[in-house]
Design goal:
Blueprint lengths: L7 E3 H6 L5 H6 L3 E4 L2 E3 L7 H9 L6 E3 L1 H4 L14 E5 L11 E5 L7 E4 L2 E4 L1 H11 L2 H14 L4 H10 L6 H7 L10 H12 L5 E8 L2 E10 L4 E5 L7 H16 L3 E5 L7 H13 L1
Parallel strand pairs: 5-6, 11-12
Antiparallel strand pairs: 1-3, 2-3, 4-5, 7-8, 9-10, 10-11
Length: about 280
């Protein structure tokens, strides 16, 4: 804890040190990150900041893990208010505040790295835990990003199931690893691809569309034989200038003989519906 209280600090420690009174802690604009831990309001509030708050409370034999640790390994997809994932050795009885999700598993010193003064599981250990603990689409999206970042290699992931036979979660790991494709450029794109593959379809990620030998566009997911593209459009696509660019891009694809299915965040809530829509377009 810094004496000027810039950064992340435990409130009771600041009070005990005479830096703040309880009234000042309540009345000033410090952000409460988790129970008992606060941050300077000028700091960007994201999941990593929340993890740094939890790190101040962690006893020995624990570390930030899973989807939370993935933020340090190229997959910063956990939302600011998502529970912070922690792994603890079986001998450690710590439960943490209510904002923390604790998993019990073996944890060796080799499994832990320090980043930004936060104990974080290594990239390969994080990959295992994400695959073993998270829903399939969430896990694959994180692994896609980690491989794309270079934090782990495809070969390392492929070896994980054989390195942990009988280990808790190995069945889930075996299911997730074959679905990993680092060509994906966003978590929603990965989620859509996983849904399509599980539905028996075979989209090609980040496919470059050519027409008469000329580049037209690169699309998120493509079925080249049927000239069908599936595009996920995040929030920034609804900016005025971006809408114009997107519409022009779609027009070029259509002029080249392609059909385009455009998806938004709302479609992610009904991925079965997305699969049905794409399947219908492929046979139509």
């Amino acid at each position: 804890m810094r004496s000027d209280l810039t950064g992340v600090f435990i409130g009771s420690h600041a009070i005990a040190a005479g830096i703040l009174t309880r009234k000042q802690l309540r009345e000033r604009s410090y952000r409460r990150l988790v129970h008992g831990v606060y941050a300077d309001p000028g700091l960007v509030f994201d999941h990593r900041l929340r993890c740094s708050a939890v790190a101040l409370l962690l006893p020995a034999g624990t570390a930030i893990a899973g989807h939370s640790a993935a933020a340090w390994h190229g997959a910063p997809f956990a939302a600011p208010h998502d529970p912070v994932t922690v792994v603890r050795q079986p001998s450690v009885l710590w439960k943490g505040p209510r904002e923390v999700r604790v998993h019990q598993a073996e944890l060796t010193p080799a499994d832990v790295e320090w980043h930004d003064d936060v104990p974080v599981t290594s990239a390969l250990r994080t990959a295992w835990d994400v695959a073993a603990w998270e829903p399939l689409a969430t896990a694959v999206a994180a692994l896609d990003a980690m491989v794309r970042r270079g934090s782990v290699g495809v070969g390392e992931l492929a070896a994980l199931p054989t390195a942990g036979p009988g280990r808790k979660g190995v069945v889930r790991v075996r299911r997730a690893i074959p679905l990993v494709d680092p060509r994906a450029e966003s978590a929603p794109e990965s989620r859509v691809r996983v849904a399509l593959v599980l539905g028996g379809l075979t989209p090609v990620p980040q496919f470059e569309v050519l027409h008469d030998g000329q580049f037209v566009a690169r699309v998120d997911l493509a079925f080249p034989g049927q000239r069908l593209a599936v595009e996920y459009e995040g929030a920034y696509h609804f900016d005025g200038a971006q809408i114009v660019r997107d519409d022009a891009r779609i027009a070029r694809l259509e002029a080249a003989g392609w059909r385009v299915i455009r998806l938004s965040a709302a479609d992610l809530r009904d991925l079965d519906g997305v699969v049905a829509r794409v399947r219908a377009a492929l046979v139509g």
